């Protein structure tokens, strides 16, 4: 009996030295859990990162890779690579651009949001960003794409493009991927404004916990986190967003159920909740920081992982790209050379 091939997963985060505890708990920690069940490809999406500038790009790429590893992603089981080392991403992105409509990209809420803040010179890369993301996913024939809610629209576009090319070329060139938004995954919110997602682009840095934050800074940010004027410690996203966020963070790190945490806080005050949260978060961050520092001290090791990952990724990506090139009708150089000789 032939074994059923495992479903494939692809995801990526941009290299930045501002990885937040939200990225870690909401994305990376989930990826670690997925690696046993799926055939996983995790990219450091450096081509995406230059849309907003290339400051610190090299260091940030190593930092992102070190963070993946420190979080527990196993390079023996997953393909870890830097997007720019696999040239097929840029190539497929161009091809997909020719099948994407301006209107579709203009409708992207992330483009509308970011371009409105970009001033007079909006890079065309910001506009085309979702097409490159579609290329990332489609090249690997990924079945599932773990992303946050904010990327759902980009994934919809990816599906539309996959279907459009499959239809136009009358060939099943691409698998149509599904978003994988885990139901129980932690969605960590801003500490100051717990109604918005914790993100490095939030207005106040005070509401955002970074993996590079010091213990003091973590303690200060959590101590000042917005709660409410009530006293009850209960998980209720509508009425008690701040308190719920502190519970969610603790639950995601400790692995305890929210209900158990709630039960343990009967009769306790917010001071207790915050003190526990500070302890749990800073212990986790400290451990990660130590691992990241050790990994960053060994660049040749990180390079070897990227090399191996890129090699593996290229082989898969080239197969898809070659099929697309041929379906479009580009003349394949080898085939014609042979004809000339005979
Ligand atoms: N756009 C994603 C983000 O900002 C990052 C990303 C790029 C990505 N390519 C991807 C995520 C492919 C999943 C799959 O979060």
Mean pLDDT: 94
What ligands can be seen in this structure?
tryptophan
Q: Identify low-pLDDT runs.
A: none
Largest sheet: 3 strands, parallel
The helix tally amounts to 14
Alpha-beta classification:
mainly alpha
User: N-to-C terminal Cα separation, in Å?
Assistant: 44 Å
Largest sheet, order of strands side by side?
1-2-3
How many beta strands in the DSSP annotation? 5
Shape: globular
List the helices and strands and how they pair.
Elements: E1 8-13, H1 21-34, E2 39-44, H2 46-49, H3 57-71, E3 79-82, H4 88-97, H5 102-106, H6 109-117, H7 124-139, E4 144-146, H8 152-168, E5 178-180, H9 215-223, H10 241-254, H11 258-264, H12 270-296, H13 299-328, H14 333-341
Parallel strand pairs: 1-2, 2-3, 4-5
The chain binds tryptophan.
Description of the structure:
This protein is mainly alpha-helical and 342 residues long. Helix content is 54%, strand content 6%. It has 14 helices and five strands. It has helices at residues 21-34, 46-49, 57-71, 88-97, 102-106, 109-117, 124-139, 152-168, 215-223, 241-254, 258-264, 270-296, 299-328, 333-341, and strands at residues 8-13, 39-44, 79-82, 144-146, 178-180. The chain has a three-stranded parallel sheet. A two-stranded parallel sheet has the order 4-5. The longest helix is centred in the C-terminal third of the chain and has 30 residues, at 299-328. The relative contact order is 0.13. The model has no long low-confidence stretch (mean pLDDT 94). Tryptophan is lined by residues 10-14, 45, 48, 133, 136-137, 145, 147, 151. Residues 10-14, 45, 48, 133, 136-137, 145, 147, 151 line the site of tryptophan.
């Amino acid at each position: 009996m032939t074994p059923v091939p495992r479903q494939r997963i692809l995801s990526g985060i941009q290299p930045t030295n501002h990885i937040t505890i939200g990225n870690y708990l909401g994305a990376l920690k989930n990826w670690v859990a997925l690696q046993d069940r799926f055939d996983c490809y995790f990219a450091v999406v450096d081509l995406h990162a230059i849309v907003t500038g290339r400051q610190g790009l090299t260091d940030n790429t190593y930092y992102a890779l070190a963070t993946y590893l420190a979080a527990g992603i196993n390079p023996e089981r997953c393909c870890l690579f830097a997007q720019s080392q696999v040239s097929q991403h840029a190539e497929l992105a161009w091809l997909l651009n020719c099948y994407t409509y301006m209107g579709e990209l203009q409708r992207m809420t992330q483009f509308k949001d970011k371009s409105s803040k970009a001033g007079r010179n909006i890079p065309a890369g910001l506009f085309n960003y979702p097409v490159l993301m579609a290329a990332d996913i489609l090249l690997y024939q990924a079945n599932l794409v773990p992303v946050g809610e904010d990327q759902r629209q980009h994934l919809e576009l990816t599906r539309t493009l996959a279907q459009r090319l499959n239809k136009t070329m009358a060939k099943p060139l691409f698998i149509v991927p599904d978003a994988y938004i885990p139901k129980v995954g932690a969605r960590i919110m801003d500490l100051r404004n717990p109604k918005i997602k914790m993100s490095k682009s939030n207005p106040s840095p005070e509401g955002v916990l970074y993996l590079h934050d010091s213990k003091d800074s973590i303690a200060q940010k959590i101590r000042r986190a917005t709660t409410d004027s009530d006293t009850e410690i209960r998980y209720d996203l509508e009425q008690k967003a701040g308190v719920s966020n502190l519970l969610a963070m603790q639950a995601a790190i400790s692995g305890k159920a929210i209900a158990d945490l709630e039960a343990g806080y009967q009769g306790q005050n917010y001071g207790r909740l915050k003190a526990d949260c500070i302890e749990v978060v800073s212990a986790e961050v400290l451990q990660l920081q130590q691992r990241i520092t050790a990994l960053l001290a060994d660049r040749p090791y990180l390079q070897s992982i990227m090399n191996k990952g890129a090699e593996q990724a290229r082989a898969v990506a080239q197969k898809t790209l070659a099929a697309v090139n041929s379906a479009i009708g580009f003349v394949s150089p080898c085939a014609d050379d042979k004809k000339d000789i005979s």
